[in-house]
Structure formats: structure tokens, C-alpha cells
Here is the input.
Amino acid sequence: MKETGQTLPATPGKKDKSGPKGVPTRGDRSTAKIVVLGGLNMDLMIETPRLAGPGETVEGTRFYTAPGGKGGNQAVAAARLSQQKGAVQMVGRVGKDAFGEQMRRFLENEGIGTACLANDPDSASGVAAIFIDPTGENYVNAIYGANARCDGDQVKAACAALDGASVLLVQQEVPLDVTFEVMKAAREMGVTIVLDPAPARDVPDDFYDYPDIMTPNQGEAESLSGIGVVDEASAAMAAKIIRDQGTPIVIVTMGEEGAHVESEEVSLYMPAYRVKVVASVAAGDAFNGGLAVGLAEGMGLIDAARLGMAAGAWCVSKDGAQEAMGTRSQVNSLMQQLPG
Here is the structure.
């Protein structure tokens, strides 16, 4: 289906729920600047033959730690693909502890701006216990710690970082009132907003009117639509229902089953790139980082989504979360393959 290059209206205001006629291209494209507001967790990775049942002990096969959190993962994915030091700015909170320092240092080593990343002396950094089974599927239990204490200071920091930005990436790991206020500011400033609706939460009224693009995975799409997403047809049906809730463009990601893109003008299934899955941790975050970079560079929606899918495929072929994100050359090499 043919894409259009029509831009979103320059004057901010409540969007028509039918969505824009084409692809979001608002913001200053010359800087390709991406702002990420979101969570940072130290991931405690446990590879195990299976999950233990109640009162049962199961011996695992491997343990390691890795910097993670949806916000941090998306920031690293975008930074490695953008190839521009300082093009990605991270907004959030970590504890004033060893995990917080390690996560900050990792971001800085990736060329990500951390001036808007606060140290919270009264809370531990967020952590996530992640169990990975032999198929690479992951099961996550998170304690958000300092992430949950984001407040007006992060709203102010994000608003400052958004000046001249192209894309805002947000999720639902920090307090929703903070995310809501930052999305409102981004709308006023003409910045394209991409929301990853994870973890699933009850959101304020009109919350979904503010993102330009929402990127639920299968489970989140089912939670938002009431439709079990098991194939192309059910993904399309769920995406249409989610669009009716306010967000003009919905991309349902389905891992190795690909993704479905739904907007006013595009209803398209996109097959996945085939790789050997090591761990599915952070695949959705890699997708969002790639999507954001594509949009910031002025790509059309489908090309930007394709970059995101290749970034996600590269990520699942490696261990870890942020450490698994691909560089532009690595992801480009994967894109030379035909998906499916």
C-alpha cells in the first residue's frame, strides 16, 4: 500500500481520532534528536529449564546482570542506530547506589545524554528479575524503585530536553501523571510521540489521545482490545480497536510472527526477519528505538517500522538487554535479508 508524506498539522490540539493522513513528520528533523522518558532497571537474568511451581525449587543454568529498563533499553537502541553522540537524551531516576551508577555509566559510554537523569538518595534503583526459558522466552518481575518516584522535576527536565527534538519515546514504567504531562508538552512543541503501553496499567482519560504511535505487543494488544492476538487477522482487528481509543497509528508487534501496522491509510502485515532466538528480552524496546530513529531521519512509517523490526531481530539473537542492541551497520546487514 502506498504511503504518503503528508505531515501532521503544525498547530497543536486534540487529534481527530481518525488519525493523520500519512506518517508523523513533525519536529526538527535536522538534529535527529530523540528524548526518552522512562524506566531504568538493573536486570537480574536467570536462565532456567523451566519456571518453578509453588513451593518448588528448580535449578537454573546461568545468572548474570545487565543494565535494562524499557526507557534505558530504548535509549541505547536509538543511540546505537543514530550514530550521533548526544542525539539521544535520557530522562528518569536511578538510586544513589551501585546499580544506579552502573546504569548511568553504561548510557554515557553509549553517547547518551544523562544530564536529565536524576540520582534519588531516598530510593534504591529499579531492578527486574528476568527468567529465560530454553526457547528464549522471558518472564519479568520488576520492582521499580527510584523509577516510581519520578515527579515534576522529571517533567521540567523532559520539557527542556524536548526543545528542538524530533521524537519522544515513552512507556508506562514511571508514574503515568508524569508521562501524561510530558506528552502534553511534546504535543505543544510539535514532537512526534511514540508510546509503548507497558506494563499494562489503568490510564487517565484521554491518555491515548496524545501519542502519535502506539506499539503494543501481543499481550498488551489483547489487554487493550479484548482480542486475543494469535495471527495476522487478529492483530489487525486488535489494532483497529486500539486506534478507536485515540491513537492514530498502532503497530502490534508479534515477535517472530512479525508486526501489523494500522493507520488511516495503511493496514499492513510485516513479516519478521528470521534469526536464531537467544533471548526475547528487550526486543520490543529495540523495535521502538529503531522506529524512533527512522522517524527522526524522515523515513516513512513502513520504512521506519522495518528498521525497528530488524533492530528487534538483532536484539533477540544476543544475550542481555541494552548490551544486545545492534549498531547501524549490524542492523543494516540484517535488513539485506528478505524478511519472512
User: Anything to note?
Assistant: The domain at 34-40+70-124+146-335 is CATH 3.40.1190.20 (UDP-N-acetylmuramoyl-L-alanine:D-glutamate ligase). The first strand starts at residue 34 and ends at 37. The CA atoms of residues 290 and 308 lie 4 Å apart.
